[in-house]
Amino acid sequence: MAIAKAERLMNLALCLLGTRRPLSKRELRGSIEAYLEAGSDDAFNRMFERDKDDLRELGLVIETVENLDGDTGYLARRDSNRLPPITLDAEEAAALGLAAKVWQQARLAGAASGALQKLRAAGMPEAEDAYEVHSALEPRIPVHEAAFEPLMLACRDRRPVTFDYRKANAARPEQRQVEPWTLECWRGHWYLAGWDRGRGAERVFRLSRIAGKVRSRAGAFTAEVPDVVTVRETVESWAGETATRTALIRLRAESGYPLRARAISVRELGNGWEELEIPYGHGLDAWLVEFGPDVVVQEPADLRADVVDRLRAVAKD
Length: 317
Description:
Layout: H1 2-18, H2 25-31, H3 33-36, H4 41-57, E1 63-66, E2 72-75, H5 90-102, H6 109-121, H7 130-134, H8 148-157, E3 161-165, E4 174-186, E5 189-196, E6 201-206, E7 210-216, H9 228-239, E8 243-252, H10 257-262, E9 265-270, E10 273-281, H11 284-289, E11 295-299, H12 301-316
Antiparallel strand pairs: 1-2, 3-4, 3-7, 4-5, 5-6, 8-10, 8-11, 9-10
Helix pairs in contact: 1-4, 5-6
């Protein structure tokens, strides 16, 4: 469905950019196959008006012209829709090259590489790749979850979705109806932030816990989409980034290096164990469970209980 709409918008844009005179609705309907297949004049008019608004929102300047007979026509003049020359310095070019490398493991690899080639053909300077020449490290954003691509498209197109989601301490998944806002990568895991219709509140979902297919649903969003900064803060808060207090844990020596990186203090306990004080925020229990028997929560008691509940849920499976 998203591909069909994109093709229809592209055909409409080409018609409006390729004409030297304003085209009427009747002429546009006769030139674009998707409009010919519209069931009625009302359906075509609604589709055309939505498409016209979408193209304008994307930045295409569409003029509405009325001729001497009172008929309305549409065109997009090339001089009004010509982009200025793209000029980038070496540092900006290096940043774009680095960004393209980040996506090489994702489905966006082809689009990133193609965009970079077009910019270089337009005169973007070739920047020295510091990661390739001076370091064995290379940036990557891993995208292994099948849910990533349909959710990315749903976020872009503002389309509601449904999927089966299994919480960390749940025995089986349950269906969620979500208005997706954005995807965020945090500590190597992808999260979806959006409005959960069933709960009437914003929620964050870890993509690796989505079971089965993500299905798109018709209709508009019912809740207002917050700005990007607010959504990012929501993801960080629900994933455990925002700390409100500290927790005391025992950690087996030579393990749990991500925990050590966040530790406020570390104390030797002997017998292959160490005591760490770490920031404690929402989601820490789910993170600690991933370290299995290498971690023992000492305090606070509610965190210890949450970790134990999650471990018991895993053991039942």
